[in-house]
Amino acid sequence: MTTATLKPQAAAPARRSFREQMHLAREDAIVSAVNRLLAEKGFEAMTVDEVAAEVGIAKASLYKHFPSKEDLAAAAMVRVMNRALAFLDELEANPQVTDPYERLRAVARWTMQVQLAGEMPSLPSENSTLRAALTTNKAYVDGLVSVSDRLGAWITASQASGRLNPQLPPIAVLYTLYARACDPVLGFLKGAGLYSDEQIIEMVLVTCFDGLRAR
Amino acid sequence: MTTATLKPQAAAPARRSFREQMHLAREDAIVSAVNRLLAEKGFEAMTVDEVAAEVGIAKASLYKHFPSKEDLAAAAMVRVMNRALAFLDELEANPQVTDPYERLRAVARWTMQVQLAGEMPSLPSENSTLRAALTTNKAYVDGLVSVSDRLGAWITASQASGRLNPQLPPIAVLYTLYARACDPVLGFLKGAGLYSDEQIIEMVLVTCFDGLRAR
DNA sequence: GTCTATAAATGGATAGAC
DNA sequence: GTCTATCCATTTATAGAC
Question: In chain A, whose CA is at the least distance from the CA of B174?
Fold first, then answer.
């Protein structure tokens, strides 16, 4: 506003775009730090000071970008939701994986890879202030609904084709897949130090789809 | 000490036993409150003030019984571990359930029942101060080892008898069973409001042992 | 051992200069 | 928008009277 009255406007559009890109880059760095810390120690144990320190800016600057700690966490959840949507797109574009059942397996595998990479933010489902921030975040809710719808279609298709147990309610299958994102078995097995990440994922994938029982 | 020089000792043994019983009863009330709060909101979100309020005593009195918040949590874990051991005893004494595979199923079911009843304390595995309190707690460590050993025996027996997938490392099976204690799917499905607790447990039991895949 | 009162530290959030 | 400095509520833990 004030600069407009003092400076020529020729370069204004480009400059504003540049500034906005810087702005977005900074916010991306913030969300990355939040994402990592949420994956590492969870929402309650993560402090805003830590986030600021990891990004390398002052805490007050953080609050210029995000109005509260809850919004920081919500931004991280939006990002991971978008990553999930991008993966689903990739999967649908992949001619090698067209069977819905195989796609569900691929989703579960991806989910666990993200968790083992320390990039899966996990939030407590009980915290009410956090739930409020999430349920009022349109980007998050829309993303969650979109992911659920697409997975839901694959689930019912897999049940129709006879590869997935048709006795299980689709919602139970959906939640079971979601739960792989925070399955503590991955961390337990990693802590045992006996298996590689790939081996761990394959084992949990087998127990998830084939069960503990012998076939 | 001082009372000993002032009062006759005839009734001392009984009286001391009574006092000790009161002491234990109070500690039991404390651990119950901690157990409930840990199940409801987790370690970080639980405050010592809440515990004191729920028990109905002053916070300072709490610290006469337990030296730190971590020790409170450890006591709750010891208690649930003892409950688990008692259940294993019960199971071994039950002539109706002698097959190791059925025993493992029963353990998983019990674990989920406890969680759905809001009585399963859950701790973050990352918190270092908490890990220190747990790993230095002999009662807890011994209980955990004992439970793991007994389950481990049933696991290998079930694999030998061909009911449990022999390709899975026993430790992976063990961790998978432990993970039912904090499986978020139970809470998700409960939140959906479509199924009874018994139905929820049966569904998760099926997915755990039979897998999502059709048989 | 129970209480009231308080210390000591932390953490979320903001004021105000630049 | 970034910083320093600070506010204020909360939280773990303790002091000291009874």
Answer: A185
Contact B44, B123 (CB under 8 A): no
| Span CA (A28) to C1' (D3), Å | 21
**Domains, chain B, with CATH or none:** 3-182 (1.10.357.10)
**What type of residue is B44?**
E
Q: What is the DSSP letter of B4?
A: G
- Least Cα separation, residue A172 to chain B (angstroms): 7
B124-149 in b/e form (b: 16+ CB < 10 A) is eeebeebeebbeebeebeebbeebbe
Whole-angstrom CA distances from A15 to A2, A9, A26, A27, A61 are: 15, 10, 17, 18, 22
Q: From the list A40, A166, A172, which residue is nearest B203 (CB)?
A: A172
| Euclidean distance between CA atoms A84 and A79, whole angstroms | 9
**C chain positions with any atom within 7 Å of a protein CB:** 1-5, 10-16
CA closest to A174 among chain B residues = B185
- The nearest CA of chain B is from the CA of A186 a distance in Å of 9
- pTM of the predicted model as reported, rounded to 2 decimal places: 0.93
Report CA-CA distances (Å) from A47 to A52, B12, B63, B123, B141.
9, 53, 26, 18, 31
**pLDDT of chain B, 215 residues: tens digit per residue:** 444 444 555 555 566 788 889 999 999 999 999 999 999 999 999 999 999 999 999 999 999 999 999 999 999 999 999 999 999 999 999 999 999 999 999 999 999 999 999 999 999 988 999 999 999 999 999 999 999 999 999 999 999 999 999 999 999 999 999 999 999 999 999 999 999 999 999 999 999 999 999 99
Nucleotide nearest A27 (Cα, C1'): D1
